[in-house]
């Protein structure tokens, strides 16, 4: 039996695999194509496909990909347990998103918005209630080539930028800190959900205005009186920017207190990635 099985070694799984190697943990990981010495695997279409769950037995299973509803979560878990003849009782850790949390601020005790969360929230609730699993609802992921400055390409249309002006707050967490968070939470006896960010609130507009295309669009939008009132300025140069101008939506303090560590890789607008390896 191995210590940890990562189902889906994508962005987060790669950081986690590097951390586990550094700490000499026994683990295995899957990808859909078997790249980088991983197990070639994808979720079977039915739990009756027993051989489709031919995966190593592990003490902890990390699910990094979205499960669309309670049925999908049940199929995965029961299929895996069935393949191992129900002789193992691994702990399940499922990675979700903070998108369904609308209260200001939201904490681990906030109820997710079912409409915003959709089937993924249904899967989360099942994993917690039936299988005593742990759900980590993650803020915006960044690290390496994945940097918020590149997200400006999503706001090169006026209406998309207009919508963002009223919800500028951005919560982030570095992939390396997520890996540290996952490993740390494996030792926490309590099941349930936690919200995970680096604890800061970033101003998305401050990031977007580094792109001249977005700056040009904002100059056009600020010809409208409503936009000027919203931003409290008459021209782009006078718009107040920064953390003091946005609202904390995600409060991760319960999580970092529970695992007794703190995030180590904050984001600095325009700065280099602080992570250089475990």
Automatic annotation (TrEMBL):
Domain of life (superkingdom): Eukaryota
Protein name: Uncharacterized protein
